[in-house]
Specification:
The protein has 15 helices and 10 strands. It has helices at 7-11, 28-40, 57-66, 85-93, 110-113, 129-141, 167-172, 178-184, 201-215, 226-234, 240-254, 290-297, 301-319, 324-330, 335-350; strands at 5-6, 47-50, 75-79, 118-122, 143-145, 152-154, 158-163, 187-190, 223-224, 259-260. β5 and β6 (152-154) form a beta hairpin. The longest helix is centred in the last third of the chain and has 19 residues, at 301-319. The radius of gyration is 30 Å and the shape is elongated. Bound molecules: adenosine-5'-triphosphate (ATP) and magnesium ion. Magnesium ion binds at residues 57-58, 122.
């Protein structure tokens, strides 16, 4: 299994130090975040990145590395959630030949690979307690042992950790070591969710649209209509920037290459409708004439419901010869409920 990310290979082109993906944004929460990040980057201490999925934690970790004095050394990443608890220890610290069945030769772990550089521990909340203990020792004394060895190895690694979990809560439940949390939280940076940085949505959408158009080999980048931008800005973006990127890329490739008017937020929405349950087995709802359905659908639901209530109230009153108790019974309401409706009806009628 190789979940590793050697950031030098991934991010750097032929020995240069250019970070391929630049974090974009102009909104206040984003600029504030970037400023705090830039300030802590050169400080040789751990940083904890907290944010919802897709908010840019991995990108922020890369920026921390490249703005630090370690930028020429490797940045190594480990997604702890992608590994079983038993594998995390050997991935991080390596192992000696014969340490366990299948350990056919010595293997270096991520700590050794990241020596003099940065180790990015993603989803740190999933690390087992025994391994947390070992990480704490590296943070405090810069030493560890490979699995199956008693020889201490010295490394100089800066840890950047990321999570979406509530580590304080995990610590209260004894599922995360408070001592480690104290050390990792030298600086805690919260990534703003996209819904809190709406001013950046149009900018990011334009950026992702441009990149998609380029990938498709188009000469022109399609522009978003005002309605499309409004729809993007109204969406709550639970998947944050990753979701925006995906939605925009889909909209670009489906567009006519000139203007984007339609935004599909839910590609799983099925065109094959599940038939609604019959209203009543005895009396199925009558079919509506197209003109009638146009009439009802031409107004907001609230207005249509109110119009129907008024109609039924008047019909019931007429049928009950204006005896309100009888009218209430016809409508299946208590007299009290009927009076409430009737008062509302009268006040609107007389206004
Ligand atoms: N400010 C930004 N500008 C441009 N692209 C961004 C920005 N932030 C994030 N992205 C892009 O959004 C996607 C998600 O970012 P990233 O993987 O860093 O998020 P994450 O918080 O690590 O997500 P997860 O919690 O799911 O691992 C990536 O494709 C990344 O390049
Ligand atoms: Mg990530």
């Amino acid at each position: 299994m190789n979940e590793s990310n050697d950031w030098r290979q991934k991010r750097l082109g032929s020995g240069t130090s250019t970070v391929v993906t630049e974090a974009l944004g102009q909104s206040e929460p984003f600029l504030e975040f970037q400023e705090r990040l830039s300030r802590v980057a050169p400080i040789n201490r751990p940083v904890l990145l907290i944010g919802e999925r897709g908010t840019g934690k991995e990108l922020a970790a890369a920026r921390l590395h490249y703005l630090s004095n370690r930028w020429q050394a490797p940045m190594v990443a480990l997604n702890c959630a992608a590994l079983s608890p038993s594998l995390i220890e050997s991935e991080l610290f390596g192992y000696e030949k014969g340490a366990f069945t299948g350990a056919l030769q010595r293997r270096f772990g991520r700590f050794e690979s990241a020596d003099r550089g940065t180790l990015f521990l993603d989803e740190i909340g999933t690390i087992p307690l025994e391994v947390q203990e070992k990480i704490l020792r590296v943070v405090e004394y810069n030493v560890f042992e490979r699995v199956g060895s008693s020889e201490s190895i010295e490394v100089d690694v800066r840890i950047i950790a990321a999570t979406n979990a509530d580590l304080n809560d995990l610590a209260r439940k004894n599922r995360f070591k408070q001592d480690l949390l104290d050390r990792l939280s030298f600086e805690v940076l919260f990534l703003p969710p996209l819904r809190e940085r709406k001013e950046d949505i149009a900018l990011l959408a334009g950026h992702f649209a441009g990149r998609m158009a380029l990938e498709l080999g188009w000469d022109e980048i399609p522009a978003f209509s005002d309605e499309a931008i409004a729809a993007l800005e109204k969406h709550s973006w639970p998947g944050n920037i990753r979701e925006l990127k995906n939605v925009v890329e889909r909209a670009v490739y489906r567009s006519d290459a000139a203007t984007i008017t339609d935004i599909d937020f839910h590609p799983f929405y099925s065109p094959y409708k599940i038939p609604p349950p019959p209203v009543s087995k005895k009396t199925p709802a009558p079919e509506m004439a197209p003109a009638e359905s146009d009439y009802w659908l031409g107004q907001p639901l609230k207005a249509a419901v109110w119009e129907l209530k008024v109609k039924m109230l008047e019909m019931a009153l007429e049928k009950a010869k204006y005896n309100q108790k009888k009218a209430a019974r016809i409508l299946g309401l208590t007299y009290h409920q009927f009076r409430g409706l009737y008062r509302q009806y009268q006040s609107i009628k007389n206004s």
